[in-house]
Amino acid sequence: MNDPFSPAPAPDHAAPPRLRRRAAEWLGLWLGVIMAMALAVIISAQLYQDRTNERAQAEEAAVNLTNAIARDISRHMDLFRFVLASLRETVTSAAFDRIPLDLHDTVLFSHTAAPKALGVLFVTDANGIIMAESGRSEIKGQSRGWRPYFAYHRDHDDPAMMVSGPLVSATSGDPVIVLSMRLNHPDGSFRGVVVASMLLSYFDGLLSDLTLDPGASLSLLVDSGIVMARKPADPDAIGRDLRQDPLVMAAAGKRQAVYLEPGSMGGDRLVVSTAVEGSTMRVQMTQSLNQVWSNWRTKAWTIGITTAILMLGIIALIVLFHRESGRRARAQHALALANAKLERMATTDALTGIANRRMFDDILRREEAKAARTRQEAAVLMIDIDLFKSFNDTYGHSAGDATLRSVAQAVTRAVTRGSDLVARIGGEEFAVLLPETDLAGALIVAERVRAEVVALGIRHTGSPHGHVTVSIGLAASITEAVTLNLDEALNHADQALYDAKKNGRNRVEVAALASVAA
User: Among candidates 453, 459, 457, which has minimal Cα distance to 505?
Assistant: First the structure.
């Protein structure tokens, strides 16, 4: 039979829970690692978003600043445009020609508002000779026909105000930009120009009160590319022509342009260029992206290091938990094995390796309760080695122990079902419990047991048969005559064993239950 109490099956029953436990531990470890990685991804995504926001905020601030400066310049340019347009209207009026020449300056300039940063204000004839001026300089009679703005107005019938420069004023020697308009005769022919110079110091003052971040700069460009003012101040930058720069050229036709200007060693610069309405001037702010991201970089390092420490701490805790869980699992497994071993020791006969009397009694009670519920048949065998005391006296206790083991193995071989139980219940006594077995089936098993023992051929000179034999008593719980519980059947099987010994040994006797019932 397959003995359920032998040591071999125990690891098979213990392995699946242990594997499940180990799988759960590794799953917990990997889940913890995945959670830590997910946290790192989320924080990285947030830091990337913060980086994007830093640039967006820097761009927005630059747009607002350049817009404010462009509006201020545009308002000032509108004042110059108004002054020049008023002078042109006066000069080209029919009444002006009837005014004496010595009163021209008074008529033209006595009531003319002087814009902030005005340098000189004058009118030329068709040859470029200054015929009237605001009176702050002695330039009347001088020629300005050599200036590019004069040539432009002479050759182009364009009524708009022209902005040119920066250049050095021929009157004062100051850096200026020149604002000019064409004058026409009533027939549309060229009459001359009206000119105002605007001091570049105005732009320097406009920028001087601003506070810029390190690495940032503000520039004022005329003709969409010639630098006329800069903060921080850089004398070498004034007058620099950037009109051939592809990025500056691309921005020239737009009211506002935002682009990246490549820098050395990957230090790109963020450029915001805003047009001054009504002119060819632009306000341009440039700032280093490295500087834009400096605060973000400090924050990113702080959060990154903190997150890394937290992640390492989480992973370390998970690993420690995993190791501790594994240690506990191993300890529990060892304890389970120890308990199983103790259980086997408590329920297994140490000499023969089969069930002992305690286990036999436990299983007998269990099967008896089951039989009471289901009315199933069962049978018991009581087995005793014939003349075993004589065998021990003749051959010694070592030979006796070996014989007990051999007989136990022979009985086990004869009892083939996994539900059957073979137990050693005394010195040389054995018992077999056969659940769901009727009397006829039990008798077959009993004869097989007896034959297996005989087949061992263990010599026994003290036996009339010349070899070791067994006597067997058999009783069934249900027969045609009576119905017994298993305890009663066991008692009757024991009585039948006594009858077998009395009737010559090496035989099977069936309990005479009918006579007992009578």
Answer: 453
